[in-house]
Amino acid sequence: MSEAPLDSTSLLAALVAAASEAHTRRTWVRRVAEVLARALPLARLELGERVEGTGEVEVVGGTPGGAAISTTRRRLHEREIAALGSGQIERSSRRGGDGRSRVVVPLGGAGAAMFVALSLDPGAAPEPSLLAVLGDVLFHLLRGQEVTQRVAELSRRAHAENRELRGQARLGERERSLVARSAAMQEVLRRIDTVARFDTTVLLAGESGTGKELLAQRLHQLSARGHRPLVAINCGALPASLVESALFGHEVGAFTGATRRHLGVFERADRGTLFLDEVGELPLEVQVKLLRALQSQEFERVGGEERVRVDVRVIAATHRELEPMVAAGAFRRDLFFRLCVFPIRVPPLRERLDELPALVAALVADIASRLKLPAPAVSPAALLRLAGHSWPGNVRELGNVLEAALILGGGETLALDAALAVDAPPPSAPIERLDDAVRRCITEALRACAGRIYGPTGAAQALGLKPGTLQSKMRKLGIDREPFVRES
Ligand SMILES: Nc1ncnc2c1ncn2[C@@H]1O[C@H](COP(=O)(O)OP(=O)(O)OP(=O)(O)O)[C@@H](O)[C@H]1O
């Protein structure tokens, strides 16, 4: 059933009611078009905004009834340029073959950046005074909508930040202090402490359980952003279809089940730090979006058109070798260089066994206090036993073994034999593929030799191969030596 036509006063009241409930420009255009169509023979409504520094305009346009709302960018028409410059309404009586007239109403006086354009059916002659009032009202409604939107945005971010900081405070209570006694870890700390105060992107590379997340926390705390949120996301823990929304958020209706606007980690980390864990797991199609967001600090939520601006410092971490992934085309080269501004290699536990006693003491004390058990002394024999283990799961695995040993020993001793038997890998533990092992050896040699293949300091000699053999293996495995040359 179509609604009754409106007189000018009711028209303005209905506009205020309709526009004040619209949270996006598309809804605004749809609602305003619906109301205007009740007072004028409106065929189409456009809301345009000049794109600064260009002769272009971004237009959200639609027909009453609202079926087809579109957003486009195009060059400004002459009449639009004239209306924006003078602040006066511009009309063209005939446009195209359909006999429709077009009225451009600037919003905000001479030098305005926005306008609405009405396409009216043949014969329509709205009162100039009505159009002028319309321009005023629409301008103020839009301004009001922008302020409301901004306030809602800020309140959403403040809410998210508050939640983040409360979570962090809870974590902080349980946080383990970082042990770094070995020369290798001292060097890691030196690099962390040096780079912390700059907004530079840091890439932490190291095996699983080596303490990358703990180091990211230290980096954040030492930075000027330390009192702001540190938001972490594990890029490998989500299915590809959800990673983009987890990073950038989504709008209502972006996909089935998206019933509310959701803020992604980029927005939740605004003015703080974003920790991208397992960055090597990101699907290629998301990598390109991440690169753009890192470069411009701007992105669009999934299903949205509005550009969201943030100020985020990024720390990325990976347990996978990214260079071979770049060479094999599984990781974008441009993203790799964007992330690898300040790489820090976190050594595995087997390369820093000299700090094992300190680590064990700290972990035992921490676990005992958490389990409310006494902390037994750790004998030299127990330390020797622990030093003989290979620790593929690094400090995390060491912590698990110590926790099991403490429980099995009833808090009086560390029942290491029993705990290590539990920790022994199952017979079906995955065996590394030969190609992967060869790839790992070659990339390690190339890194150590700064990409050189030939000569006494080259990778071929280090691997005990002829240069030609090495090159053919590299070709077969898709390994490129370039990243290693640049890295040196
Ligand atoms: N140097 C250290 N001192 C004290 N505890 C440590 C240290 N390194 C790691 N840990 C502990 O080991 C566990 C794993 O550490 P963390 O999560 O930081 O490793 P990670 O490298 O980020 O692992 P992953 O790659 O699997 O995410 C945590 O419980 C952490 O507190």
Automatic annotation (TrEMBL):
Residues in Sigma-54 factor interaction domain copies: 178-407
Keyword vocabulary terms for this entry: ATP-binding, Nucleotide-binding, Transcription, Transcription regulation
Keyword Transcription regulation on entry: yes
Organism of this sequence: Nannocystis pusilla
Pfam families: AAA_lid_14, Sigma54_activat
Top-level taxon: Bacteria
PROSITE patterns documented for this protein: SIGMA54_INTERACT_1, SIGMA54_INTERACT_3, SIGMA54_INTERACT_4
Annotated InterPro entries: AAA+_ATPase (IPR003593), AAA_lid_NorR (IPR058031), Homeodomain-like_sf (IPR009057), P-loop_NTPase (IPR027417), Sigma_54_int (IPR002078), Sigma_54_int_dom_ATP-bd_1 (IPR025662), Sigma_54_int_dom_CS (IPR025944)
Transmembrane stretches, start-end: none
PANTHER family: C4-DICARBOXYLATE TRANSPORT TRANSCRIPTIONAL REGULATORY PROTEIN DCTD, TRANSCRIPTIONAL REGULATORY PROTEIN
Name of this protein: Sigma-54 dependent transcriptional regulator
